[in-house]
Amino acid sequence: MYMLLLDVVRALRSADVSFAIAGGYAVALHGAVRGTVDIDLVLKLTEANYVAAEAALVGLGLAPRLPVSARQVFQFRREYIDNRNLIAWSFCDPHDPTRLVDIIITYEGNRVPTKRVMVAGESVPVLAKSALIAMKEGTGRPQDEADVDALRRLS
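RESULT FIELD:
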């Protein structure tokens, strides 16, 4: 069940990427009931971090859905967000569309606040609950509102 998650975590860790799991997986790993297919990531906002993440994901057989490089995403990030409504830079496996990873480019952190969660004996960095709530608040998406409610009910 967590095969892709662990592969992604190991690849990013090996590439010295500063990251955390976000989105539905993070909500579930904090303890709320939540189903999802894609793995959402937040990265420390540096060009080197984006480049290393791209190389790690490509090394897993994933390809960017858009024909842009990490350097381009980093350099033109504000343009993509403000004028093209891009929230995530997506990677998928061309042979298995269920293997999907999204890098959330709207994340502004220079420090990625994390909580460590054990998954199949491996320590996985998950976006801290308060940061996850802040990211999901006010998006207007019903799933995000449900996630915020679920996270707030956790002790």
